[in-house]
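pls ignore typos typing on phone
uridine-diphosphate-N-acetylglucosamine + seq
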Amino acid sequence: MEAFLVTGGNRLEGSVEVPGAKNSVLKLMAAALLAQGKTTITHVPEILDVEIMAELLRRLGADVVYRPLEGELVIDVPEVVGHKADYDLVRRMRASIAVLGPLIARAGVADVALPGGDAIGSRGLDMHIEGLQRMGAEFGSEHGFLIAHAEGGLHGAQIWLDFPSVGATENLVMAAVLAKGTTVIDNAAREPEIVDLCHMLGKMGAHIEGVGSSTLTIHGVESLQPTTHATVADRIVAGTWATMAAITMGDIAIDYAATEHLEIALDKLITAGATVEQTGRGFRVRMERRPKAVDIVTLPYPGFPTDLQPQFIALNAVADGVSMVTENLFEARFRFVNELSRLGANVRTDGHHAFIKGRKRLSGAPVEATDVRAGAGLVMAGLVAEGVTTVLDVHHIDRGYARFTDLLTGLGGKIERVDADALAPA
Ligand code: UD1
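k done
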């Protein structure tokens, strides 16, 4: 187990480059299963989840070459793919569920262990299952595995999602591209990562209309061809650096990032007092005074992203004023608040609302990263706390942030990766 020692007080200044999006690349990797042959994915972030997905694809029969330094993956998929996603991998990464749609479409059968993943709420699979059932798949469960069959192939269907679920939309799109006939998904999620997936599927020969809207119409084709595709930039990593600039009253140029994928979040930073400007390579965020408190309501895209909620709670914890943050996607995401309170933050939660009274100072203490974004929020708080903050369980942070400590150090932050077992008891 490793920990980060974060020493507060430094302003972050300089530039960072944003890698490809974790939440896109994992689905692009699953989508590679849909075509026999070599698919190449570039702009791949150097994170643990990519290795877990690569291992899953290998067990399904694909030959995967991952070159982390080049940010490149080559996935060679055989004519006949396996159908089992084992618990040891799915448990480590919930996004493994993204192989469900491709496996049913390609193999006519899928045995996928029921997922674990981030400890941020119940995260059901009902919309994935109901949508695939409408397309002709039959489901059962045995020994902790979800078992799906559609040996005769899937057929097109009309699907209305109760909620624009990211994972369900992706699984249904990946199943529909090889189904017989036309599938219409209404109330589909329209995150930039879903648009990225649809773009790659289009290059593979899929026919998808309405990309980027909440109604996707997919005309199934007989087969798809492998392709080469560059992963869209990680808007959550970009948004994290932007919030880091604001909380440390710093100045960060965030390269290879698109402001149009972060409109609400950047607007909130401007309300908090930051200056955001476009640069030729991305955008730059500067903050010259103590941030002002801002209210946040998380919603599916294009609403405020739940994956930036902990970072904005950290910002509000040291801001001038009182704020309310409403979490509409993951009920357990406020577990992070208990950790933040250990640093002296004044936060009270009631159901899916958090009320935050900004404090001028936080004070360093040992805290635990409860999920990847909570971990980022705690590091941010540590950067402005007096003394040293020890962030435990940093493997969560490594799942989403490539070269995190190097980049932070390069910006002037004081952060060190240490062996947690070697730390004196707190
Ligand atoms: C993805 C992202 C995650 C992000 C989330 C919302 C990945 C790997 N993860 O997660 O970082 O926070 O989108 O933007 O891309 N739900 C159901 N039944 C279903 C499906 C979902 O009840 O069949 C519920 C979940 O419990 C959750 C909410 O819907 O409360 C949102 O889930 P969803 O949009 O599917 O998120 P993920 O794909 O899991």
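The domain at 2-18+233-423 is CATH 3.65.10.10 (UDP-n-acetylglucosamine1-carboxyvinyl-transferase; Chain). Confidence is low (pLDDT under 50) at residues 117-121. more later
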